[in-house]
Structure prediction request, 458 residues.
Amino acid sequence: MFPPVSSFARKSAVALGLLFSPILLPAQNIVRVDPVIKTMTEQVSAQELERLVRGLVSFETRHSLSSVKDKKKGIGAARNWAEAELKKAAATSGGRMTVTQDKYIVKADGRRVPQDTEFANVMATLKGTDPTDDRVFLVSGHIDSRNTDIMDVTGKAPGANDDGSGTAAVIELARVMARQQFPATIIFVCVQGEEQGLYGAKHLAERAKKENWNLVAMLNNDMIGNSFSDETNLKDNTRVRIFSEGVPAFETPEMTALRKSIGGENDSRSRQLARYMKEMTSRYVPQLEVVLNYRTDRFLRGGDHTPFSQAGFTAIRVCEMNENYQYQHQNVRTEKGIAYGDFPEHVDFEYVRKNTVMNLATLSNLALAPYSPEEVGVVTSNLTNQTELRWNAPAKGEKPAGYYVLMRDTSAPMWEKKIYVEGTTTTLPYSKDNYFFAVQAVDAEGHESLPVMPKPLR
Prediction:
């Protein structure tokens, strides 16, 4: 069952004229596709993404300690180029998108930053159209690159895939989405300092915390363009990984007690975001399967989502399914017939396109959806084989048209049922002991908020 579709209750220009086309799948699941979002996904261009990656590679190195004065080489020239590209997007936004270089000083750390150095995150902020909507959604890729020696600031480090692919995706998202209107704010950021120690992400997470941003979700795209792995020789551009934390890095004693009492190790907010992204991908991106990786990141590696998780924000990492270590963090050279180096020729730009579309579908649906329901609870005061759920409507934003109660077996990785409810309470003929439940708000056009797990109500 789905919420009613109203042709009058429109929250933004994006929602104007929405007519949802149900698609009947063999399993008899109805997939609701927003035609305006679908049109945006069709505007994402593999050719444009390739142009952007080659532009980034043209600076030879984007090492965070490289030149900031050279007009053609180094991180300074790359940052200015990214700013100019984002300003092209901003010019189509009707004044709603602003572009800045958020500069900050990284103190010498005795490891990868030998002296105090100025870094900068290149940011484009698409302001929400609803002045009462304080939600922020953030998508990132890191603009800096490296070769084998992390302290080599002059050697060529093309960084086409790591992370030219993620940075290009961010700029392409800004280009396509700048012309649309969303009630919530979306920030597109090219982060500097990832390779030197996640410094750009740390700075931005600290800023978000200090300025009290209502940062609902952070999507980090780091290496989303390689579809051919060395050693295993796998060729696959139909799958992509999403890494998400299980036990939150930022967990209070109260959160720990609740998690242990309900068995919520697989239901952190970041994991809910990963599931949401998987569902949006299945709706909007043909021939791309999201593989949920139940780790924060890979062994011996890290990413810009981690400082946000550590600060208590909901954050995930998008990463290619199969990595190629002949291209990654390698000095440019030919050795025993093998050409090493992270060049555009090794990037699958159709794969980058699909991964960019995945980000667009997720961001658009989240930014159009109502706020999530509040005070979601499951009544546990009685011994019963039914489940009673209660919640409050969100205090901010447009009133939801209704709610989805989500349900799955305790061993299932994804939500298996969606039950539409118009009120703020429901009793289901399923035992609360045998299933996990959550509640998400939905508007008249079918845009869904992130789900909220219920707390026990005694």
The radius of gyration is 22 Å. The chain is about 25% helix and 25% strand.
